[in-house]
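User: For my dataset I need records formatted as: sequence, then structure tokens, nothing else. Please produce one.
Assistant:
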Amino acid sequence: GALVGVSEHETTFSVWNTKMEGGKDLSDKPAVEWGHRLEDAVALKAADELGLVSRFAGGLWARRDNPILRVTPDRFVCKPRSWNALGVIECKTAGDDEHWASGTIHPGGHGTGSAPLGYQAQVQWQLGILGLKIGWLACFHLSNERQFFLVEVHFDPEWFGELVDAAERFWNVNVLGDEIPMHDLRHPITEDLLKQLSPSVVR
């Protein structure tokens, strides 16, 4: 999502910096820690609502016809007593319910469901690489109401094509070509990162 400008947490520059310099260890951040600790509970709840089974997705996957396209899905969803993946479950936790509504999102953004665009892009990326047609965003909100949202996301080939174009351009121009992505330098996330990298220069 970052490469097409819809991520809430990353920009093209921050992704490039991680690729070139290595990323920071965020495991001590409470939001990251509890997101990982609650991942299995969120996946199990989603599978229960679907009447299916959650399976560990097994790490890094890549497209055989284009190995730079890689993904690490949270969970596969399967029928009981089967390992044949019907789709993916992407597990989230959040502190508020802004942008979230249980339901379905069809290609073009049509449907009754709602979720942050960055998370929708994440599922589209997973579906396109894995060759699946449907995925679910499952989100547990850590509010007083303890709400749980389950959003069914259908594969959108046009959107996936845009994501692939952005990824290939980023890999070839910015990573292999060692060209700093300049178009989002005034983004707040990029500005904060630049201040951390060069505190005596960027204020």
